[in-house]
UniProtKB/TrEMBL annotation:
Lineage: Bacteria, Bacillati, Actinomycetota, Actinomycetes, Mycobacteriales
Similarity comment text for this entry: Belongs to the class-III pyridoxal-phosphate-dependent aminotransferase family.
Keyword Transferase applies: yes
One GO MF term: diaminobutyrate-pyruvate transaminase activity
E.C. designation(s): 2.6.1.76
Protein name from the UniProt record: Diaminobutyrate--2-oxoglutarate transaminase
Biochemical pathway: Amine and polyamine biosynthesis; ectoine biosynthesis; L-ectoine from L-aspartate 4-semialdehyde: step 1/3
UniProt cross-references to Pfam families, sorted A to Z: Aminotran_3
Entry keyword set: Aminotransferase, Pyridoxal phosphate, Transferase
Organism superkingdom: Bacteria
Cofactor(s) this protein requires: pyridoxal 5'-phosphate
Alphabetical GO biological process terms: ectoine biosynthetic process
Enzyme category, top tier: transferase
Amino acid sequence: SAGLRPSVFDELESEVRSYCRRWPTTFATASGSWLTDETGHEYLDFFAGAGSLNYGHNNPVLKSALVDYVARDGITHSLDTYTVAKREFLETLHRVVLAPRNLDYKVQFPGPTGTNAVEAALKLARKCTGRETIISFTNAFHGMTLGALAVTGNSMKRAGAGVPLVHTTPMPFDHYLGGTVDDFHWLEHALENSGSGLEKPAAVIVETVQGEGGVNVARPQWLRALAQLCRDRDILLIVDDVQMGCGRTGPFFSFEDAGIEPDIVTLSKSISGYGLPMALTLLKPHLDIWEPGEHNGTFRGNNLAFVTARAALEHYWNDDGLEGATRRRGEMMSAAFTDLTATLPTVSSRGRGMIQGLVFADAAQAARVSAHAFEHGLLVETSGPRDEVVKLLPPLTATDDEIAYGIRILADAATAATN
Ligand code: PMP
């Protein structure tokens, strides 16, 4: 049908587009865990806007807050002027998220994207310490501007732009390569040994679970040791929670299970909850040495996003219902994948909460799984250094039945793709 051949995109849109290659149809509407294309086909969404739709599409609670606000002629855009919507968001973030966790952070609005939040974090770490280098990890993903790209492992994304890993020392990440590489010991040794060539860094930036990097999960003990190592050496710890924050792994912040308190935290993707661009850089108050205007950006005052973000925090984070459901559904997925992979010798699985990965032998197998899933009405993306990992991020609000339905399609797809 016409909907399946969106040739106008091929003619008019840059080749840089990517996800549409896996999903060759034109989507029109969306609700909850489902997208509908213009020919009326429905797709269960296990991608959720790359983790930016943790509360599902057009979540009714968020939608009604937004519609009410727009109907009252609420301000849409305000740079960084004081507005009621921004004040109410800040108060809610403090009351619902930060205060109950005893977390003391000031909130910076660095611009609309996760990349903006990372740029601000890197710049601030360099300014606060007077040091230049940043340590990041192999297969890390932190964003696409020059600074964030310089701490991103993916060489394909860096190479064309000529961005070397200038501010980073690439190292394996805990549990990547089966956890056989003692990267922690390596880092400790390199920092202590002046002959190692590793300059004392301003900061270490880490994802607790690498999303784009292939669902590589750091153990809580490893994160605690990393935090201690940073503290002992006066190195700032930045947790990039752009993809794993806002409940993806269970708790609001993905580092809560490890009991660590990073110096700087980045949030974006699901913070607005409605797919509206919004990002935060959270900083320990003593680090707030920015000069007024030293880091700014036109779109750091998206009041529509403040409204939906506040509604999401009020509705989902005043109690631990969503956290418990996420942990439970995550276990449901991981148990199903353990059973599945027991029958498929070349496939394994890993994850935490509702970020789960199915690891295939190569990119071709993973691509076949994604294509088979699409044909059967399920949207899943691939990730990982060789694009061999099928990455699953259903909305946290997906029902048990929806999760079970998606798992069944994936099981068929994985079986078909590996036979
Ligand atoms: N950090 C992490 C951990 C991410 O997953 C992403 C996006 N995939 C980013 C930063 C960049 O966010 P954005 O695409 O909104 O700039």
